[in-house]
Write a structure and sequence with these properties.
Strand content: 15-25%
Radius of gyration: 22 Å
Largest sheet: 10 strands, mixed
Structural class: alpha/beta
Helix content: 40-55%
Length: about 325
């Protein structure tokens, strides 16, 4: 008969498993019970839709329910705190945007967590912004807008989704790159800023392609540029900022899956493989495109590297301007 493990080995094996050193077996057996998938935004938004697509795919592939729980509030802080207080065992995940790990730690003195408490699992997709002006705006190009804003630094107003939101920070990056002047007008979310731009109450607005595209296609807005590296399929006539000579004004609202730091590496790697497989499915890709997002599969290492690089990029915008949300 094979020798039975000594009693003193049980704590050691548990410790090795926590460190990911007993990982292959842990990954092979995972998951053995339902997995919670926290979402840092309300139901019905892009993050929620993508979380449900991924959760349905994971349940189908791994044979256990992946249950979506919306934990909206405080600019994604509530969901971020909930994740970092969860056990690092692969049974609590978070779908959120770069706001949680890139913006919030720079906008708050103490949001209740640090970026180091997040383990990036997988990128789902990324959504660029569109630089919108009212349909009757005198500005028919980015160059015209910049020229006016440089010559008249106190004349332009820009809508934002709120102080410290991606629309605000992209406008500030635009200012930093071009030297144009403007006054930010902070609205409570994307929709009010979009309404104000359509009504001509502001001069320009960096809004998500997913919400801007229908208004641009319908002639209610004029899209001057998008912040993606390539033109968007749903706005093929709108050039990129890079094409127009402003390569620094490139950026995305990205959507990713996270686990608590310390989650066994083999479980994280398995989730990464499965999620990359899910977003590689044609039906899922088509749905992401309808939401104005590009599929962006990445390895675990690449995703975690992007998180660090993204935070440093926006640090150069947030810190010099002392943008705060405290």
């Amino acid at each position: 008969m094979p020798a039975r493990p000594r009693r003193w080995m049980a704590p050691l094996l548990a410790a090795l498993a926590a460190l990911g050193l007993a990982g292959p077996a842990a990954a092979q057996d995972y998951p053995q019970r339902p997995v919670r998938v926290l979402v840092s935004f309300p139901a019905g938004g892009t993050a929620d839709i993508l979380a449900r697509l991924v959760s349905e795919g994971l349940a189908r592939r791994l044979g256990q329910p992946f249950i979506v729980e919306n934990r909206a509030g405080a600019g994604t802080v509530i969901a971020g705190q909930a994740l970092t207080r969860s056990a690092p065992d692969g049974y609590t995940l978070l779908v959120t945007t770069g706001t949680t790990t890139s913006f919030i730690p720079l906008l708050h003195n103490n949001p209740g967590y640090t970026p180091e408490q997040f383990a990036g699992v997988a990128m789902i997709g990324r959504s660029p912004l569109a630089l919108d002006v009212p349909a009757n705006s005198p500005f028919r190009s980015v160059q015209e807008l910049v020229a006016f804003g440089v010559a008249n630094p106190n004349r332009l107003n820009a809508a934002t989704q709120g102080a410290g939101a991606i629309s605000h920070l992209m406008a500030e990056l635009f200012r930093k790159s071009t030297g144009l002047g403007f006054t930010p007008i902070h609205y409570a979310g994307s929709a009010p800023g979009l309404v104000a731009t359509i009504a001509g109450q502001v001069d320009f607005y960096f809004d998500g392609v997913s919400t801007s595209a229908p208004a641009i296609q319908g002639g209610r807005l004029r899209g001057l540029a998008v912040t993606s590296e390539q033109r968007m399929p749903n706005l093929p006539d709108v050039p990129t900022m890079r094409e127009l000579g402003y390569p620094e004004v490139t950026g995305y609202a990205w959507y990713g899956v996270h686990a608590p730091a310390g989650t066994p590496a083999p479980i994280v790697e398995r989730l990464n493989r499965e999620i990359n497989g899910i977003i590689g499915e044609r039906e899922v890709q088509d749905r992401l495109l309808r939401e104005g997002a590009e599929v962006a599969p990445m390895s675990v290492a690449d995703f975690n590297r992007l998180m660090v690089e993204d935070r440093e990029k926006w640090r150069d915008v947030i810190v010099p301007l002392n943008i705060r949300m405290d």
